Amino acid sequence: MAKFLQLFKQTFIYGIATVIPRVISVILVRVHTDKSVINEVSDFGTLSLIFSYIILFNVILSYGLETSFFRFYNSEKNKKDVLNTAAISIIITSFLFISIFSIFKLNISEFTGIGVDYLRIVIWILVVDALTVIPFAYLRVKGKAFKYSIIKIINVLTYFSLNLFLLIFLQDLSGKNQFFDNLYFEDFQVAYIFIANLAASLVSLLLLIPFYFNINYKANFALLKKMLFYGFPILISGLAFAINETFDKILLDFLLPASVAKTEIGMYAACYKLAIFMTLFSTAYKLAIEPFFFSEADKKNSKKNYALVLETFVIIGSSILVLVVVSLDILKQIFIGDPEYWKAMYIVPIILFANFCLGIYQNLSVWYKVTDMTRFAAYISVIGATLTLLINIILIPKYSFLGSAIATFIAYFTMAFLSYIIGKKYYPIPYNTHKILFYLILSVSLSSISFYLYRDNLLIGILCVLIMNLVILLNEKKRIINLLKLMR
Q: How far apart are CA 211 and CA 138, in angstroms?
C-alpha cells in the first residue's frame, strides 16, 4: 500500500502539471470561441485542423524514443550512454526534419491546406518541442516531478498570457504606441495563436537547456540501434494514436462539402474539448505509472500491483465520468463562448467514455512494455487506427462529427479489449474483471440516463452522482480507510 501512496503522490504532482495546462487550454477555448476574438466558427475549425497536424508530427519527431529511453535507462548499466545517445539522436533528427520541411514547404502547404505563413511557425514549434522530449523524460525517470511540473506550468502560462495579450489587448494598444503598431495586424488571430505557442515552447527549451550542456556528445550506435528497434513499434502505435485523436478532423475536412467542413470541425473541436476532464485524469495517471511499471517489473508481487493499479484507475474514472457528464450543460456555458458551437454537445458523453477506454488501454499496456514485446503496441494501435479511418470514412458523409465520435469510441474500446485478451496469453495479470466491468457498466448507465433521458433534470443528475459514489464508498471502504491511514 505504501508503494501505491507514493504512486498517488507522483500522480498528484504530475496531475498539477497536466491539469493546469489542460484547464488553461479549455479556458482558451472560451477565448477563441468568443465572437469578438475569432468571429467565425469556420476560423476556429481552421485553427483546430492545424493543431491536428501538429499533434501528428509531434509523434513522428519523437519516434518512440521517450518510452525507449525509459526502458533502457532502467535496464542498462551505463546510464550515461543511454542519456547521451538519446539526446544526440533527437538533435540530429530534429534538424534533419527542419531542413526537409524548409525545402518542400510549398508542396506541404498545398497538400495539407495550411498556409505557408502558418507552416513556417508550425515547423519551428515542432522542432523546439522535439528538443524537449528527452530532457523531460530524464526529469521523469529521475523522479523530479516537481521540476517537471514547474516547467510545464511556466510553458502554459506563457502561452496563455501571450494569447490574452495578442488576441485581446494588442488591438487596443496598437493606436497608442509605435511599438504596438508594428506588432498588430488585422485578421491575424490564428497566426497570433501559433506565435504564442512557439514562444511558450522556446521558454521551455531555455529552461531545459542546461541538460544539453551536461551531456557527453558521444553516441553509442549499437545502443541506438537497439533503442530505435525497441521504439519503432511505439512510433507506429503513436502514429496510430495520433490518427485516433486527430484524423477525424482531417477527414471531416476532406469528406464534408467545403462550404460546411470548417464550421463542422469548429463545433466538433470545441465540444470535444469538454472531454478533457477525463483526459486530465488519464494523462496524469499515465505519467506516474509508466516509470512505476518498469521499476516494479522484476519484483515478486508486480502482477498483483499492476492489477490493483488498473482497478483503482477504473474506480476513480467511473466517478469522474458520471460527475462530468452530469455537469456538461454547466461546463458548456463556462468554457464555450458562442452558443453556435453547442450544436455538437450530444457527442461529448461518447468522447468521454472513449477517453476512459483509452486510459484503461494505457494501463493494460504494461504487459508488452515490461516484456519488450512492444510490437504488439503497433499491432493493436494499427487495428484501432484502421477502425478509426474506416468508420470515419463510412459515417462522416451521412452523420458528420457524430460518426467521428462513434469511431473514436469503437477504436479505443477495441484496443483495450485486444490488449486484455492478448496480455492474458503472454503476461497474465490477475485483474478483477468482474469488479471492473461492474463499475464500467454502472458509470455508463448512470451517465446515459442523466444526459440522454433526463438532461434537463439536474436533481436526477445529482442523484446519479450520489449513487455512483455511494456504491464506491460501500465497496471500497476498507481500501479507502487503509489509504487514509497511510496519508497521516
A: 9
